[in-house]
Amino acid sequence: MPEARLARDRIEALLRKMAATKVVVVGDAMLDVYLVGEVDRVSPEAPVPVVTVHASRHGLGGAANVAANVAALGADCRLVAVVGEDQRGQSVRAELDDLKLNSSFLITDSARPTTSKTRVVARGQQMLRIDEEIDDPISAKVMEKLARALEHALEDADALLIEDYNKGTLVPQVIERGMTIAKRRSLPVVVDPKFKNFFAYRGATVFKPNRRELELAMGAALDLAHPRGGPHRELRGGDRGRESRRRDRHRPRSACGARGVLRSAGEAETRGIAVVGPPGFEPGTYGL
């Protein structure tokens, strides 16, 4: 079974190239909050553990985390996203500033909170996750501000990354604006989609749903033993989609969690990409 590998010198060359690359990330920015403590009793009010919090920390999540990762590879990264007019929105901006990431393309929306996920952790185990969010589409006024920010960020960019978490930032108008500008400037577009806008990214250079999203969108299970058929074939457009793929340079990839990444490089080639993890982790390579 074909397995995609990169030589060390190729990886080093790509990383050196990143230093001269300007990348725009647009999508749903979040704040990840962690409350860490100990459990030594059960609440008398309900049969639930009582966590005594000893420490807390926060970090960038969602599209903001993707932007941080892109910057960590050496690129000049611009995050285009929406945050609330609240303390957590200020925390997102502060985290970006600490990482020397440009926060000038963030749009503040006073009508919605900054999306946050708070994880309560005790004895190395996550006990609870609390999501604070409004996933309704952003208003027309905020959408226009976001679209203008996206246009400005893309003026001299080399690539566009679209990170959709179904939190309301990526409305169809914003997606269309970004895809149109990228097509006009011949920029590569990498899309990490969710279910709502799954079919709105025609022409993307790389389209990377995870396995569950792909199966939900296509209404069929993904058979990793025979990935040329089923939803992966439909995502490529089947036989009828061959010419459009040639025009659009469309390259589907499906993230399969611990089982690796399924990569389609054309009608006749589907490959598995191995996942390498820490000791105790069992990577898998899937594909034909």
Question: Could you explain the architecture of this structure?
Answer:
The chain is an alpha/beta fold and 288 residues long. It folds into two domains: 8-31 and 63-116 and 140-203, Ribokinase (UDP-N-acetylmuramoyl-L-alanine:D-glutamate ligase); 208-288, no CATH class. It has eight helices and 13 strands. It has a nine-stranded mixed beta sheet, sandwiched between helices. It has a four-stranded mixed beta sheet with strand order 3-2-6-7. Helix 4 (140-153) runs parallel beside helix 5 (172-184). The longest helix has 14 residues, at 140-153. The radius of gyration is 21 Å and the shape is globular. Residues 236-249, 254-260 and 279-288 have low confidence and may be disordered.
The CATH superfamily of the largest domain appears as: Ribokinase
Output mean pLDDT.
82
Give the ordered list of helices and strands: HEEEHEHEEEHEHEEHHHEEE
CATH names the topology of the largest domain as: UDP-N-acetylmuramoyl-L-alanine:D-glutamate ligase
> Helix- and strand-based class?
alpha/beta
Tally of helical segments:
8
**Tally of structural domains:** 2
Name of the level-1 CATH class of the largest domain: Alpha Beta
Strands ordered across the widest β-sheet: 5-4-1-8-9-10-11-12-13
Radius of gyration: 21 Å
- Main beta sheet, described? 9 strands, mixed
- Tell me the distance between the termini: 5 Å
The beta-strand count equals: 13
| CATH architecture descriptor name of the largest domain | 3-Layer(aba) Sandwich
Overall 3D geometry? Answer: globular
Helicity, as a percent range: 25-40%
Spans of at least 5 consecutive residues with low confidence: 236-249, 254-260, 279-288
Strand content: 25-35%
